[in-house]
Each structure stands twice: as C-alpha cells, then as structure tokens.
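Before the break, one more example. Copy the sequence into your notebook; we will annotate it together after we see the structure.
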Amino acid sequence: MSEKLEQLIDQGTGRIPADIVLKGGRFFDLVTGDLVASDIAICGDRIVGTYGTYTGTTEIDITGKIVVPGFIDTHLHIESSLVTPHEFDRCVLPYGVTTVICDPHEIANVLGTTGIQYFLDSACETIMDIRVQLSSCVPATHLETSGANLPIEKLLPFRNHEKVIGLAEFMNFPGVIHKDPVCLAKLDAFQGGHIDGHAPLLSGLDLNGYLSTGIRTDHECTTAAEALEKIRKGMHILVREGSVSKDLHALMPILTERLSPFLALCTDDRNPLDIAEEGHLDYMIREAIAKGVEPLAVYRAASISAARAFGLRDRGLVAPGWRADLVVVDSLENCKAEAVLAGGRLVNDALFANRRPVAPVGLDSVKAGHINAADFGVPYAEGETSVIGVLPGKIITEHRRYKLPASGNQAGVDLGRDIIKVAVIERHGVNGNHANGFVQGFGLKKGAIASTVGHDSHNICVVGVNEDDMALAANRLGQIKGGFVVVEDGKVTGEISLPVAGLMSLEPYESVRDTLHHLRQAAFALGATLQEPFLQLAFLPLPVIPHLKISDMGLVDVDKFTLIS
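Here is what the structure looks like once it is written out:
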C-alpha cells in the first residue's frame, strides 16, 4: 500500500508523469458551479490532479469538451433492461453511468438466493461498479405465489459481501407501521446500515413512523409536494424516470440548487429500446436542463448527492483523491458522452471483451402446465364488475367498476370502452393457481399479449380480446422459456425469449433492442395505445392501493386490494 500511496503523491505533485492526463478541456466543479480550465491527472483508479498542468504516460486531448463526474443510478432493477448484468454493463456504461445501485428483487422472487448470488458474481466482473441491495420483500405479498421466500436468515450471509450496500426498497410499509414481526426482523438486522424506502403517497404521522426505523430514501414520489414533505423529514429523494414510471417532470420544481444535496436520479425500470432512443441518466439531465433546471442542481443529483446518500464516499467529484469515474461531454446542456472513464479505465470494446463470463441461472423457471381457452372464463354476474384501470406512465392503477356484456353465462369484453380480459397464471410450479379479471386502458382490438415478467412475483400475465389467442400466447411462453409474446388471430406475430429466470435474454443488447422494436409494432397492430405495452403489462399484477390513511387500514396487508388475486 505504501508504494501505491507514494505513486499517488508523486503523480499528484507532478514529480513523475501521471498514468493518464485529460488535457485541453474544462471540468464542472460541483462545489462552486464553475467550469474550470485545467488538466485532469489520473493514477490507477484515482484522480490525483486538478487546477494545474500535468504530463502523462497517456495524454488524451479533450479540447473544447467538459468533464463531469460519472453518473450514479441510485435505484434500478437490471432485470427490467431484459439483459444480463454483463450486457447491461456494455449497454449503459457508454452513456456515462459508472455506478448503479441495483435491487435484484425480480430474479430473487423467482430464484431466491440463487438469483442474488448470480448478481453478486456478475457485479464482481463488470466494468461498471454494480452495487447490490439485498431484496427485502420476497415474496412481495402473501396473496400471490412467488418462486422463493427470503426471510432475514437467508439474507444475512450476503450482508458483508464487498458489493452489498444494505437492504433494498422496503415496500411493505403497512407491515412496518403495524410492526409485522417479519418486517421488523429485517429492519432490525440492518440498523446502522443503509435501508432503502418505497412508500408511495405515505405522509403525516404514518410517514414519521415509517422513517423512525432508519429508512432514508424513496423513489416513489409522484408530486413535488410529496417529495418536499419527505425531504423535510430527512429522506433523500430519488427522482425517477423509467420506461413506465415517469416522474421527472412532476418533480422538477424541487430540482433546485438548494435542495440538490437531498436529491438523486434513478431509472428503476428501463429497457434497451428506450435507452437506444433516448439515453439513460444522460436523458434525464438533458431533459431537466431543457426545462429550466440549473445544471449545477441536476449534475449534483446525478453524482455527488447520489454518492453521499448511499455512503459511497470515494466518488462524485472531479477532485484529487476521488475515484476516476469521469464522463467527457460535449456540453452541459447536451450531455452527450464522448468518452467515459470507469475507475481510471477508458471504456472501449477491448475492456468489455476482457471480462470473465458468469454462467446464467434459472433457465427452466417457467413451469406452468398446458393452458386452455376455457381457463380464461369469468362467470357473468348481475351488476357491476371490478376492472383494473391502467394509468399511462404510472405503475399504480385504479379500481373501476362497469356493467359488462354477457356471452352466455360468461362476462365478455367491451371493446367500445376498451375493456379486455386479463389473467395471472402461476408459473413457478408451486400450486398452478390461475386468476382472471378485466382491464381497461390497453387499447387492444384483437389478439393477446403475454409475459413472464410480472411484478412482483413474476407469474405469467396475459391480456387479450379472445380466449384462444390468450391461451396460445401463454403456452408459447413455456416453449420459449419465458419472455414476451404477441398473438394475432391464432398466430404468433412477435416474441422475445427471456430464459434467465424468465426475465433476461442471453442475447446481446443490440438484438434485444431490435426485437423489442418489432414487438412494439406487433402490439400496435393489435390496437395497443400504450407507449410501452409490455412493461405496462409487467406492472399490471401490482396491487391497487386505495387512498386511505395506512392507520385506517388496521392490521392488514395493503396487497389485499389487488383486483385479480
């Protein structure tokens, strides 16, 4: 260690050439907000010089460019990118995202500890620094069947892993407030460490009780007022902009220089098609600045504020002694990454090629039996029927009620009011449960679409206009070992195989991106009106949360309000 320290000192003082020097550009000082003309000297994985002139063994001319700290995505599920961690690394790192804090909640709900170990093994091989939060809610609800159960005893062996930060998003906020023993056991084990929050619409004294357990972050704010209350009560707000949940515009009023120390950015769930078309955190930065947010506020949120929220004390500034996670951009406003350094390494194809592979897991996770058209019947009943109401751009849904037409003794779809069938089919081989209902908001006029990505337990979810197409779509998922399927008039018109736990592809992200484009067009051909019909389908099994104070609910689980359990 002393030799390394001596080398850092010698290169920082300019006594010997630095390993790498970025010359001719400026860097964004996130302390003062100044754009500073200076060389940036790097030794190993660390910045050793700014505000000076340096020579280097390797010198990179960045004349006319600006250097900013590497971006940190503070909450995401890599599984929602539909690619493995290695491909996510190759897909997203070139956009300047040098650190991600992921919750392997999706694969953990399918495979349990095997899924968590797969992510930790992968994180040790990627160029991007992937940090892992231990999934706190497996299963997410006792009202749906998942493939695993992770009590605190199964999480503790991972707690001291070098890539683990703490406990992932604690979604069961009613369980916290009402002192559920299982919830308290997990919270107690991580006291003094990082505990991620997840508390949509929670406020007042109920929020106080939730925060009293040491929970410090939340990515579920959908209004500026909600976010401001949580900031005032000590939370760090993770502003989210994913493929389905899009909260950036609603939260822009709090993206200010004054509040930026208490803000960070996250994507939660974002697929390769959206990344290719828009970008990742760089898109959020561009969009915020274009809408009037001060660059200093949003760049702080994307780096130093994010790092401090999660105890990553070595990154987030362009300054001596800090980790050399750097993005060379064309301008602060455009935020186009023209070069990226991750831990002092210039990101390129050769760097990715030298990573060690990690064997995939969960290649036989779709265990649902054969499904028949008759399995999708819903008995007709007089009066109104419950219908799930989809809210575009939101993962929350509404509980609506309509009088539906009858087809014999069965309730039928109502295309005039955009009401079609929805079903959730247990696919882990546990009990074979099957639940049917109705949904409004997809726009389908024919056919069916189906998915093994179904938050949070990831059973098969299928929506459709007729039962024959729904059965074909659901059965096809078993044949391709999980994924997305589109069926029109008895024919499969689009599909993607996601054999890793029924969640991730084994193909390069470019292939996944191109296939998703075809899938989207196939769904639009059915009449789908949602921008992201597949991710919206994936979130459809989530429970409906009524607008009640949690303290008014009594000792119950909020998930009982799901419409199709």
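The chain has 18 helices and 28 strands. The first helix runs from residue 2 to 12. Try to locate both features in your own notes.
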